[in-house]
Design goal:
Strand 8, helix 10 and strand 9 form a beta-alpha-beta unit. The chain has about 400 residues and is an alpha/beta fold. The protein has two domains: about 140 residues, Collagenase (Catalytic Domain), CATH 3.40.390.30; about 240 residues, Alpha-Beta Barrel (TIM Barrel), CATH 3.20.20.70. It is built from 16 helices and twelve strands. Helix 1 packs across helix 5 and helix 4 crosses helix 5.
């Protein structure tokens, strides 16, 4: 049995349901499925008070353990004790070490649990080494358990092929041919954005793609009546609603779903009534996730642009944490989660490692690489980034 409660009231989103499942998995790996474990999530102030009361150390720490059993390797079926984690300190450490908050909390949970099983790194160097080895073993097994989830798929956006063609108003390069090459190279989906001003993809392109794409066709579009009618007629495998501004070079930010509930809700209803699942391209903000849930979206696509465009390590870490937290929040509340915009060969692997992400949508980076090495190789190289933690 796992007793889990939280007195944390800060800005970081923690899925208690997922943490409970993780704790159950770790207990199973330790042979303690029938044992009882108590977990408390608190703040720096909360854990500092516990440190001062029970350890005579008036400062916050990342994790505390209070074992109920005195022996090493207690038997199964007993009350093991309490693990207390400061989310404040855990978040700061996760940022410093380049981890998501959820993964770092998992590490702290394992550390605390190993203490409850009778090991203590403060007793001797030998026991510290034994404890560290046990933690690494459990973490590795937990990661293997979590990787049973299918790896995220790679969908290639082919708009830039059409952009190059339209620059000369001729027939090549052909985005439909490019889509076929991407699929043969291993892409699991094709993304195309039909804009109102038809600056790149054309209606004929979409009709041909619908006939030839063998994986999944994702139509990106604004919520304009003309384009909605085309989507209903074309019947793509899914639609991603994005904001659209005629002056922008590319999509510059996420939809303000919270500010357009009635309008977007009606669009989603029309499309889902025709069995076309709808994704909403949103910034990594809790209010947008809540709004997407309210109007019955199937997916959200988390906007990764600010993470990819960050100008220094600190800013990039903050933006990544926002992406990870938003994906976690959306996933834990029942939405399916995709991510995209600005991802390249340096930034993709870390987002792909988030086990909440189902699909990555990438275009510009692959097309830019394709100019140098060819489309087939560019797609295969990006697939290696997506599959990195699974290989």
């Amino acid at each position: 049995m796992i007793l889990l409660r939280s007195e944390y009231t800060g800005s970081h989103h923690i899925s208690l349901n997922r943490l409970r499942k993780t704790a159950a998995a770790v207990l199973r790996l330790c042979g303690h499925t029938s044992s009882e474990l108590s977990i408390l999530l608190t703040t720096d102030a909360g854990i500092q008070a516990l440190n001062a009361k029970y350890r005579q150390k008036d400062r916050p720490t990342n994790v505390l353990s209070f074992p109920m059993q005195e022996e090493t390797n207690p038997p199964a079926g007993v009350m093991l004790g309490d693990v207390v984690i400061s989310v404040d300190t855990a978040a700061a450490e996760a940022g410093e070490r380049g981890r998501t908050l959820r993964r770092h909390i998992n590490r702290l949970l394992i550390h605390g649990l190993v203490h409850l099983l009778g090991l203590d790194h403060e007793r001797s160097e030998h026991e510290a080494a034994v404890m560290a080895a046990r933690e690494r073993e459990l973490l590795q097994k937990l990661q293997e358990y979590e990787r049973k989830k299918p790896m995220p798929i790679l969908a290639i956006n082919i708009d830039h092929v059409a952009t190059l063609r339209q620059a000369r108003c001729i027939n090549e390069p052909d985005p439909v041919l490019a889509a076929g090459i991407c699929e043969l190279a291993g892409a699991s989906g094709i993304v195309a954005h039909l804009r109102e001003d038809r600056r790149h993809m054309q209606d004929r392109d979409l009709r041909l793609l619908r006939q030839t794409v063998k994986t999944k066709l994702n139509l990106e579009m604004g919520a304009a009546e003309e384009i909605i009618n085309i989507a209903l007629d074309l019947h793509p495998d899914m639609v991603t609603l994005v904001p659209e501004n005629r002056q922008e070079l590319t999509t510059e930010g996420g939809l303000d779903v919270a500010g357009q509930l009635d309008k977007l809700g009606l669009v989603i209803e029309r499309l889902t009534n025709e069995q076309i699942p709808v994704s909403l391209f949103i910034d990594p903000e809790p209010k947008q996730i809540a709004a997407a849930l309210e109007i019955n979206a199937t997916f959200v696509e988390i906007h990764t642009g600010r993470y990819c465009d960050a100008v220094n390590a600190g800013e990039r870490e903050r933006e990544f944490e926002m992406v990870a937290a938003a994906a976690e929040q959306a996933y834990s509340q029942g939405l399916r989660v995709n991510a995209g915009h600005g991802l390249n060969y340096q930034t993709t692997a870390r987002v792909a490692a988030l086990d909440t992400i189902e699909e990555l949508s990438i275009g510009h980076a692959v097309m830019a690489r394709a100019i140098m090495v060819g489309m087939d190789q560019a797609v295969r190289e990006m697939l290696q980034q997506v599959r990195g933690i699974y290989s």
